[in-house]
Predict the 3D structure of the following.
Amino acid sequence: MAKRTRNLRPDEPLYHQDHPRPVTRRDFLRQGFLSGAGMVMGGSIFSLFANPRAAQAALSSDLDALATSIGCSLGGVGGGKIPFICFDLAGGANIAGSNVLVGRQTQLDVLSTAGYSKLGLPGDMIPGGTEATPTATSNGDFTDTSLGLAFHSDSAFLRGILERAGTRVANIDGAVIPARSDNDTGNNPHNPMYGIARAGAAGGVVTLIGSRNSDSGGNSMAPASMINTEIRPTKVDRPSDVTGMVDTGNLTGILSDPADVVAVMESVARISNSKLGWTDTGLASTINTGADAVVKDLVRCGYLKAADIADRFAGVNIDPSLDGDIVDGVDPNNPATGIFTQAEFNGDGEFRKTASVMKMVIDGHAGAGTITMGGFDYHTGDRATGEVRDLRAGRCMGACLEYAARRGVPLMLYVYSDGSLASNGTLDNSVDGRGKGVWTGDNSSTAASFFLVYNPAGPVPSIRQQIGYFRADGSVETASSPAANNVNLLVETVILNYMSLNGDVANFGNLFTGFGNPPSQAFLNSLLAVDALP
């Protein structure tokens, strides 16, 4: 193997001699060749406007009545469930061992030295050893349990998370789920978004969002049995996607009073409904069950939703690039230090993508969101390439946790990848390689997923930090849990824990059947890592 003369930058593509030339969009994404909304308008019909209201509240009573009569669900504060964000690391990232610790039976039930070498850790860095220069949060033995869930003390994910959310550790915990999945393919049904929505997650503007324009919103697909095309994720990967979703056209530039903007949009809705045959004299006279009526109701609902968005967002800035909690120095009325500096935010599309999704979800405008990050097929014969990319991913994870803390709302954060990789024991002693094992090839048997939970009210009610386990040789024990060798059941395990956080475990068997119908409570308890948040 030729010696690498320089390390790859985080956004450089990965060229593999043992991989076919990239053809599909997923191929380009996993190898890093790709980095990681509607608008409503009102016309000039001022003579027909209703009187402006003194303050924004709900829509006028006649429009509320119309919405109710046609079954049009307007926005609000969301579904009342815990916000959910997942990171889809396309390409087969390292999660187990060098980032999140895995063990036999429990996380700290150590593997063999050879097993850790397979997971990229040399003999002088394995859990249980003695650190010459431990970090501030390390336990001194190459383990770090400051987040509850145990990480390797030199985990790049952990370093990124602590860099952005290091003051929140007492309110964070989580679990790792050893689970093999196929390498380098988007056909693993990893994405839980539709199931999270089925469990009740909803947003004030849209149910689901994702940074890719795909059926799942991410790189990996969703389980076929869960897909609901009516709530297909809306693409959000930049601030303009966020602002475009609640844009009222140029009205906010023409009309300085938000109440005037709402009045315009309400009048547009009334005029549209009048043209479709609705009058103030009664709704029942126009209701029928024909296809024509269904189409008309859909049109009515569209205008009602536009008016509702104007009611809730006219004069309200939801642009993540102008949020002082997210970006340093952009809001003169917000003295807080931003999660990202302006240089970071403006110079890195992954940070802008993360900020856009996290603001939509954590602020309640979307029920759940997927953030896809490409270029994690990093078995490039060195370690530095993967470490740098993992560090940036950790910073994005930490940004989500920190933003949830600043907003005072809970968050479940789930991280998965399509497959994984392994080391042959050769070390990369460069600065970014950190003396760890180089990644030399794909290996689905070393895969795992994990989730973290932030609880603003105090410690997370944790039950266990590992669901299933690894063999001593550094590979998933495929019989250790239903999720270990079945990606569909991995998704259901994640959803079960989401429902547990929301206090909804009793309803799980009514919504999901992968564990049997109905699954016993004792069986479900064996897959629970967290209890309901108070």
Residues 80-224+360-486 form one domain. The radius of gyration is 25 Å. The CA atoms of residues 92 and 418 lie 5 Å apart. Residues 36-57, 279-289 have pLDDT under 50 and may be disordered.
